[in-house]
Structure formats: C-alpha cells, structure tokens
Amino acid sequence: MGDEEEEPKYKLFFKDQEEPRENGSRNFTGRGKAFYTNKDTYEGEYVEGVRQGKMGEYTWHSKSGDSYKGQWEGDKKHGFGKLVYRNNKNPDDEEDAGDDGEPAMPRGGTYVGFYARGLRGCEESQAPDEASSDGTFTYANGDIYVGQWKVGKKHGRGTYTYAKDGTKLVGDWESGKITVGKWVFPNGTFYSGKFRYNKPYGQGVWVFPDGNQLTGEYTQKEQSNGDDDPPPDDEENAEPKKDPKVWCNFKYGDSVAVHGGVMAQTNLYDE
C-alpha cells in the first residue's frame, strides 16, 4: 500500500524536453516527471539521480491507485507529506479479507503527517517526543487517529476516535496499541487505566459526569468474534500474529460518591 519496491523501468522527462532523458535519472538534479512501464508516475525533484526534495508526487497506478505528495529523501517518503489510500481492489492485498470469514473494513483513508525512511512517524532509534512524529490518519470507516507515530505504527501520545459512537481512546500508544490512558464517552463518562489489545485491562477507575467514581479491575477472556478494534494501519505494518478478540469483565471495588462537594467513600463487593 504505497510502499517503495524494486524500481520498475521508466522514462524521465524534464522541462521543455519532448524526448526522454537518455540515462533516466542517473546523476540528474532538477525537476522532472517519470513515466514507469507499470503505469506508475512520479513528478518532482531529483538530487543526483534519486527522488529527493521538498515536493514530489508519486502515484501507484499499477496497483491500488494510492498517491503520495510531499517530501522525499533517498527515493523514500521522508519529511512531511500526504498519502491518499484509494479503495481500489488490489489482487495482491490480503487486508481485504476479514477474520473468521467476516467482511473487513473497506480499503481507503488518508494520512497527513511526517515520514521517516518511507514509514509514518520517526525512526526506530528516535523518541517520538524528540523527533518529527505527528500525523493524522483518517480511515475509510470514518475513524480518526491523531498523534505520534514510530516506524509506521501509532507510538507515543495519541487519540483514536471511533466514528460509529464518538468514543475515544486517549493516552500512550506502543507498537500500534494503546497501553495506558482513558476511554472517553460523549456524555463525559470515562475510564482511566491500563489497556491490552485496545481494551481495558487491569486496575482502573470509572469517572462519571456527576463526579462519582468507581474503582475496580478488568479481566479479559479470549473470544472467537468481535469487530471493535481500530483497523490496522495498513499492510506494510501487518503483525505476524493478530491480537485475539477478548471479552472484558469489570470487577468493582471502592466507590467514591460526591455530595455537596464532600467525597464519601463506600465499599462495594462483587457478588
């Protein structure tokens, strides 16, 4: 999905030239447009024969129809840019198949933000807070993630908003998954604690709009079906093994009620 692969053959044209450059982009510095034999196109800056500079646009006509417009370095997306993922069906894509025979989310979406060596966010050796790592991914189903990225995955501080119900996951992410933060509902209710597989896990607290709080602990049990996880970033970041679908069970403990600005603590017990 918009990856740099082995370079196909091409013809390079530059301004006011009707014939392609004899040696392609070899040792070429300037602005040109390349037409590849697989129908891909690139128009933008070259430095010493490689795609590099502040602005260049590459369209993968041969596969999905994805297009990237932004900065380049060493023939890779690097710096700030925008990549539009088309919903065209590519026979080579495996992400269109759902788990356990279920239909998957339609292909598509848009990412606007920083890249490093062809992948969203910063490099493996960099800390998201100390490098250009911010980006916004709008998925085909309307979900939106705004935050930090690292080697193509959500990593650092970020917020994922579900389009279907307006709930949000806000907090710290690692390798594409939220690990600690808040699960926020449109009415102001939120859960604060740890997460596993993008679901609450371990000790945490529910906070309600009236100020009342309920502490407790979430346990998880694997299940065979479910479709509430954020969709995968794209196939370039596919995990060798998918996370299991889980049921979450909350065992409550202490409840803190607010009455006239005074907090009164009540002990609750599981049945």
Overall spatial form:
elongated
Helix count equals: 0
| Main sheet characteristics | 18 strands, antiparallel
Structural class: mainly beta
Gyration radius over CA: 23 Å
Which blocks of ≥5 consecutive residues have pLDDT under 50?
A: 91-103, 259-271
Quote the average pLDDT.
83
Helical amount: under 10%
| Proportion of strand residues | over 45%
Q: How many strands?
A: 18
The succession of helices and strands, N to C, reads EEEEEEEEEEEEEEEEEE
What can you see in these coordinates?
Helix content is about 0%, strand content about 50%. The protein is mostly beta strands. It starts with 9 loop residues before the first strand and ends with a strand.
Write the layout of secondary structure elements.
Blueprint: E1 10-14, E2 30-36, E3 41-47, E4 50-59, E5 67-73, E6 76-85, E7 109-116, E8 119-120, E9 134-139, E10 144-150, E11 153-161, E12 168-174, E13 177-184, E14 190-196, E15 199-207, E16 213-223, E17 245-259, E18 262-267
Antiparallel strand pairs: 1-2, 2-3, 3-4, 4-5, 5-6, 6-7, 7-8, 7-9, 9-10, 10-11, 11-12, 12-13, 13-14, 14-15, 15-16, 16-17, 17-18
Short description:
This protein has no helices and 18 strands. With 271 residues, it is mainly β. Strand 11 and strand 12 (168-174) form a beta hairpin.
Q: Which terms summarize this structure?
A:
18-stranded antiparallel beta sheet; 271 residues; mainly beta
